[in-house]
Every structure is written in structure tokens, then in C-alpha cells.
Design the sequence.
């Protein structure tokens, strides 16, 4: 999860000279950042360096990143007219720099290290587009969802189309697995997830499935509607630390599962971090189809050595 980032000295050096969008738009730099964690951490797969909000540029919503405050949407969606004017676009033309970065990274990676592409899920993208940036309460998003349900579904349907095609294009460029990120979907109730989100996540994953590569469906805070989340699609269901791994597996059946170390465990003293890792491995019981991972991204203040220690611990069983 978020292999490259502010916790890595090599990445911080690049960020002193380049903005996040500069790195994303430059295929050579994006490929370089993609490769940085592989040798340093010894992970089993690489994750393409990009940002889930890049499609907003092609959708003419405007995207910038404010230091210390995260993404800012210049033209947030406020009403039906804003949704209606969202343009259709060719993902290979508008987001071709992402695919080129994937091609470059795939060329440099060892043959036995797969490359994972990703995109934001319709709900998470909609929340950013409506809120104008990050949110803790998602008040504007839920107000839009409840007050104008027809417009809401039109918006998410459009985003699902974009996301599904974007994922498939990444696979054509060389990504050997794809991940759909629904980072903020845990703010919803089970009923609201089923009504307002699940059909659109299902559509995005169905479009991506045309690529014929494994699909990972990622979300946080999904324990209250895990079965519905899994039913939306994906060959691998990602769970966070809020539900024990074995309990999650018992609920979703034979699907593969990804997770689920608490990211803050990497900040704990080594014995405590080791205890939590071993607990997850014990719950997995060497069952096939487990991808050991964090429940969310690596925190910026994490020591690289702590990440490497967890990778080595997992590899050692």
C-alpha cells in the first residue's frame, strides 16, 4: 500500500524538485518512483506510481495539490448541470502518460515481480469531486446523494465508465493485476452502500474484467457491509485492521483476501509490530490466496527499516 511516498528518502529528494503532478505526468519519473521501493523493501509486487484523481484533469474539473492540505478540485461538482457537462474522453489519449509509465516500469522490473495498476472507485472519486477535496464528514457528498439521487447515479455511472476503461488500459500497457480503491466508502451505512454505490463499483469492475487480469477490490471501514462489498466484484477483497483476517474470510467465503496490518503498527516498538504481523499470519494459516498488506497506506513518518523488517518477517513465515 502506497509503496512510494514521503517516508522514503529517495522520494523526498525527487519531491524537492518536482510536484506530485509533475511526477505523475512524466512517465520516466513515475516509472523511477514505481521502482524505488522494490529493491529497498523486497516486496513481491510493484505498484504503479500515479494518483487516483488524475482523471479529473480529463474531466475538466481541475486538480491541484496544496502543500500540507492535499488535493484541491478547482471546479467541484455542485448540481446536475455540472454532471451533464462532464466530457467523455479517450483514456489512452488523455491519460496515456500513466500507461507509458507502466510500460517503462514493466520493462525495468524483474520478470518475477508483477506490476499492479490502480484507479479510484466511483464513490471515492465522487466524494472528492463534490467536496472539492478531502473530507472528514462527507457532508456535501451525502447531501448530494440524498437530495438528488438521479443526478448522483448519473455521476457515478459516468465515473464507473471512466474508471473501468482506465483500469483495462493499464492492463493493456503491462499491469498484471489491477486494484480499485474505494478509500472513503466506509463512511456509508450498509443500506446506502447497496443503494448508492454497489451497482457502480460492480460496473467499473466488470469493465476492468475485460483485461483478464486479477482484480483487487480495496476499501476501508467496510466491516459492516463486507459481504455486499465483496459481491460488487473483484478476485481479491481487501480488508483493513478493523476486522480480524479470519473473521473477514469466514464472511466472504472462497475469495482471496488482502490485508490487514494497521499502518500505525509500523510505528510501534519492534516486538509489538512483530506480534501483530504474526497474529495475521496465524489467522491466515498459510491458506492460499492471502496477500499480506497494510489496511491502508504507509504513514509518512514511518521508518523504511520498519517496513523492510515486516516484509522480511512475512517472507520468513
Sequence:
Amino acid at each position: 500500500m502506497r509503496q512510494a511516498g514521503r517516508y522514503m528518502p529517495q522520494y523526498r529528494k525527487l519531491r524537492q524538485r518536482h510536484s506530485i503532478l509533475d511526477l505523475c505526468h512524466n512517465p520516466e519519473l513515475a516509472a523511477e518512483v514505481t521502482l524505488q521501493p522494490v529493491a529497498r523493501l523486497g516486496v513481491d509486487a510493484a505498484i504503479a506510481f500515479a494518483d487516483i484523481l488524475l482523471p479529473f484533469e480529463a474531466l475538466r474539473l481541475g486538480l491541484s495539490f496544496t502543500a500540507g492540505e492535499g488535493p484541491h478540485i478547482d471546479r467541484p461538482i455542485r448540481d446536475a448541470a455540472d454532471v451533464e457537462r462532464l466530457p467523455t474522453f479517450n483514456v489512452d489519449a488523455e491519460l496515456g502518460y500513466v500507461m507509458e509509465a507502466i510500460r517503462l516500469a514493466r520493462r525495468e522490473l524483474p520478470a518475477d515481480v508483477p506490476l499492479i495498476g490502480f484507479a479510484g472507485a466511483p464513490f471515492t472519486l465522487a466524494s472528492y469531486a463534490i467536496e472539492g477535496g478531502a473530507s472528514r464528514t462527507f457532508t456535501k457528498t451525502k447531501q448530494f446523494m440524498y437530495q438528488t439521487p438521479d443526478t448522483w447515479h448519473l455521476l457515478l455511472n459516468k465515473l464507473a465508465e471512466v474508471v473501468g476503461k482506465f483500469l483495462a488500459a493499464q492492463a493493456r500497457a503491462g499491469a498484471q493485476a489491477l486494484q480499485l480503491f474505494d478509500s472513503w466508502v466506509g463512511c456509508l451505512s450498509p443500506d446506502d452502500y447497496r443503494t448508492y454505490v454497489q451497482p457502480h463499483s460492480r460496473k467499473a469492475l466488470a469493465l476492468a474484467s475485460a483485461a483478464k487480469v486479477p482484480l483487487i477490490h480495496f476499501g476501508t471501514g467496510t466491516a459492516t457491509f463486507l459481504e455486499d462489498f465483496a459481491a460488487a466484484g473483484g478476485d481479491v477483497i481487501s480488508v483493513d485492521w478493523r476486522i480480524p483476517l479470519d473473521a473477514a474470510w469466514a464472511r466472504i467465503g472462497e475469495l482471496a483476501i488482502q490485508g490487514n496490518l494497521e499502518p500505525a503498527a509500523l510505528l510501534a516498538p519492534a516486538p509489538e509490530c512483530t506480534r501483530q504481523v504474526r497474529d495475521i499470519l496465524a489467522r491466515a494459516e498459510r491458506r492460499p490466496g492471502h496477500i499480506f498488506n497494510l489496511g491502508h497506506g504507509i504513514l509518512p513518518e514511518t521508518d523504511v527499516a520498519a517496513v523492510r523488517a515486516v516484509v522480511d518477517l512475512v517472507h520468513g513465515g
